[in-house]
Specification:
heterodimer; A: Formate dehydrogenase/DMSO reductase fold; B: alpha+beta; five-stranded mixed β-sheet; globular
Amino acid sequence: METGAGRLEELALAPLRRTRRGYYLVLLGLLVIVGVGVFAYSRQLAGGLAVTGMAPTENKIMWGLYITNFVFFIGISHAGTLISAILRVSKADWRTPVTRMAEFITVVALMVGALFPIIDLGRPDRMLNVIRYGRFQSPILWDLFAISTYLFGSFVYLYLPLIPDLATCRDRLHDNISAPRRWFYRTFSAGWRGAPDQRRILAMALVLMMIVIIPVAVSVHTVVSWIFAMTLRTGWNSTMFGAYFVAGAIFSGTATLIVVMAILRRTNHLEAYITQKQFVYLGYLMAALGMVMVYFNLSEFVTAGYKLEEGEPVYLNQVFTGTFAPIYWFYIFGGLLLPALIVLMPWTRNVAGVLVAAVFVDIAMWLERYIIVVATLRVPQMPYNDLATYAPTWVEVAITAGAFALFAFLIMVFVKIVPVISIWEVSEQLEQEQGQPAIDALPFPAAQPAGGS
Amino acid sequence: MVPITRRRVLGATGAVIAGAAAAALSEGFLPIGGRARADEQPDPLRLRRWVMVFDLQRCDGCVGLGLPPQCTQTCTWSRFVPEGQQWLEVFESELNELPDAGIQFLPALCMQCQNAPCTNVCPVAATFHTPEGVVLIDQERCIGCRLCMAACPYDRRFFNWDEPVQPPQVKSSPYNVQTQTPAIKGTVMKCDFCTDRAEAGGLPFCVEGCPRDAIYYGDIEEDIATNGSEVVQLSRLLNENEAFRYKEELGTKPRVYYMQGHGEKALPKTKTEHERTFMKDRLEWPWERIVAELEKLGAEKPA
């Protein structure tokens, strides 16, 4: 246990062995919020979408918080792809301690985000019509295919690097775990012994998956944006929407990863492995993406504002000086420029600073999604006397809160089932740094029999 | 001479197959989804192509009569339109930016676009073109995602947020896609162009309800239209009056035309008094009252 790998293993497995009372309290609190959300949804099922704030807008603002949440959650699901796949492809070593969390955020965010189009349906009972009568010409079908492909791919991409760690759990957690969990580790470690051929196959599968998952992830947020960009509406009718959404997705995904990383680092005592380096590097990435977002805002609004086509004056006025101005300028200054400034200033370039910046980015990106959905729908398409106003009801707010709680809840359950840090990859890297061949770095000797329990 | 080799033959066959496949795709032979092809020439059967024309010189929004817009009102009453929806809505818009230019009344219903953004985006083909080119909605299939409403550039689609209130005899009737009765909660509705009435030789309710004879309904295939009082040659009416289509530049190809004007043929002249007298806010949806009355009757009967 005195080697680096042994200490890491102890540290990573500790939360799987023991659970503190505070954990259950937080879990319970989250469950209560999820419960309130479920109750709110039951009210909506009974009363129809009439219980939402969309109903009183005379059919003018037909999408609201639900679609905002859909875009936001699918957006943060890009955390996993970016950190794992892109950084794996570019062989950035500092990523290893955070890949596991990133991949899990992807899976959880996708599962939560995919709920929202269903919550938003007027007839959820006819949901399967999308499969029975599906038209592939509809952007909704593109979304269905892209998101389910991405969800499946992300599951695989989460699972593959988990196999050696599940084997560690299988071998190390004999006692003080229940029989179902023993069965879980035994089954899903898939007879991993760390044999050279197994390692070779795993390495090949990982390379394949990390290359496949990048275009899939890009396609997902592109087609999400096309739900909007395939209409003729001022504010949505834009050719750069796909790229704009993908950039925003990776941006908010990075921020979400930083927040989750900061929390798990504290609760699971991973300070020795997730250091300031990870925060600062991810912070740099976030700052760079923030500048990309600034650029996109400039491109979009300058080209629209210069020509002032019909509808644009209303749109730009309400965003720059009208109803949406406070949240829009918070998004620009608090969500794009301030985080970049925090990361670039040497005296705030630390864990706390990057964390604060990331929280700002997450809030701002949610607000940005809200502006994209609601501000566009507010632009009158006919000669109306006055603009419609959308104010979400308690049902929509409760379902939104429930979704965020569900997101946190699933992550908390996850950290009790598998190690949040990739033991084998980090050890391998540690050993490499100490100049030993990577093949010996795995914490379990090849001699140990498979399925040893 | 070029010798015939196996390679050549296989290559040529491949090229032919690829060409045929490309031709099939470009011709649209592959029946994907269920979208009716509206723009096809209905040669053998000579299908009707319904068209509506609004004569804006005659339309004064019923201001001169001191009534709410009668096209909307007749439509609502006769089509059992759920409360809050105006399938045909009359808008007031500024004629132009010149001083004292006056007001134009713009009656707008579903434009029956031939390149319809709504049918394009529907994930389940619940909204579709009939072979005649009219856009209908199958409320028994609609999943209520409202993407068609987001896509419609004329805001002419309405959602049943709540359980729609309609008279009991409508509620209990079997579903009819042409008349959209009974209205179904959680689905989208809109003007259906009264194709059931046209097929039976009648006119849409809005045309019948218009006291100014400002609405023509006709068939561009037979080149004929009527406002209920006179029968005209449709193409001549459109050409001579330089008819336009609303938001033509979007390329949606509507089947609803407008003849430029601002109610100047409707008497009395109302150009400056419109705001005091336009009575759109007095439109009524009597359904809740009818249902309440019927319930009262039902409660009294056994006593």
